[in-house]
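Lay summary. Proteins are chains of building blocks that fold into shapes, and those shapes determine what they do. In this project we predict the shape from the chain. Here is one chain we studied, written as its sequence of building blocks.
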Amino acid sequence: MAIPAAPTIEFRDDPGHLAVYARPLPVEAHGEAGLIPVASLPGVVIDLAHLLA
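And here is the predicted shape, written in a compact code that computers can read:
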């Protein structure tokens, strides 16, 4: 499975942090449910334009 040119960004608001995932990605290469965390730290500011560039 190829990674799309502009992956979907999925936000998961878990207690104490914001996790951002780029998807879909190959499950074989990246594990659980084909999601790979790109940021998962308390107070992180995420530049979505940079992620999608």
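What the prediction tells us: The chain has one domain: 8-52.
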